[in-house]
Amino acid sequence: MTDTTPPNKTALITGLSGQDGSYLAEFLLENGYDVHGTVRRSSVNNHWRIDEVRRTVGDKAAERLHVHYADLADSASLSRLLTETNPGEVYNLAAQSHVAVSFETPESTADVTGTGAARLLEAIRLHNPEIRFYQASSSEMFGSTPPPQNESTELHPRSPYGCAKVYAHHLTINYRESYDMFAVSGILFNHESPRRGENFVTRKISLAAARIKAGLQDELVLGNLDARRDWGFAGDYVKAMWLMLQNDAPSDYVIATGEDHSVEEFCVAAFSSLDMDWRDHVRTDPSFIRPAEVDHLLGDPTKAERELSWKPEISFSGLVELMVEADYQRAT
Ligand code: NAP
Ligand code: GDD
User: Rounded to the nearest 10 degrees, how much is the dihedral formed by the CA atoms of 235, 24, 222, 319?
Assistant: First the structure.
């Protein structure tokens, strides 16, 4: 018999105030969803990305965006939220997401980035195991395993953050296999945007280049310039998250561009887009070198292209220009 139940177009996003939370909320609101998103209490207002979402989608669609306090370290807050919002889809994007910081705070990173996923999965299982669940897994899980990396590549994390993500990743698979839940992981390679946090390398570079050009800053101090990453645009990547939850069957996917660049190449592109030579402004300092480095991430997104018809739309040079232009507008 055909199922005539209308789809539950209510989504819950943990980490609404973050880069991906904001782009995903925007995408879902534009596609008719009611969106509930979590924030944490902070001593200063850090909701600027949520304000941007409201501006981008307009007043009418913004009425379908609902903001809630919740914490991945607080099981009761997650259970309460599921009862209050009754979502059809849950996107677990909240995390302590900074790799270098995870070396300073390994225990709380494990608690939020790793055990947080366990709290949420268990709350979903008890509330309604029919909910479709997306886990924000990471290419950082591949660590030292050489590229190109795909869904079958061995996981060898090189940071407390990477270890916590590996736990959450395997637990998501475990809930799928144990309870037949529609629980999937997107193994996303680095994705950036003008909404990227200022202490990730791409935004640190675009912001500094813009501020140096505007006469607001003298130099940029970085760590390892040789690290290579597969950088894409966050707005492209949140579409892949949604596509994974619309699939007929749950499965995990690598989301990447299939193209890699070094940190130095990002510097060259960012400074030259403002007619500057990066070598005049950038110096390195060992304090930004991590206890263990991930040298080279380069994803193979063949499975996502084949099964989700997903392809990134913004190129590396387009991404750099987008970020530098936005930061230059902000600086001037
Ligand atoms: P982000 O900008 O750092 O956002 C992280 C979000 O998590 C923020 O909203 C943050 O809230 C929230 N959060 C942190 N601790 C929390 C807690 N204890 N309880 C509830 N919320 C908490 O990260 P992103 O770049 O959007 O990434 C989204 C997810 O994808 C993360 O899980 C990240 O690890 C993963 N990922 C990212 C990339 C990438 O390249 N961007 C690649 C692979 C995987 P505050 O604003 O209050 O801090
Ligand atoms: N943050 C930062 N700051 N990184 C620097 C700097 C610096 O001053 N100088 C060099 N790097 C190098 C880092 O050592 C790393 O090799 C590379 O630039 C990228 O660093 P980040 O931008 O901090 O990103 P990440 O790759 O460590 O982690 C991001 O991508 C992961 C997916 O691979 C984060 O978004 C993670 O949450 C995500 O899972």
Answer: 10
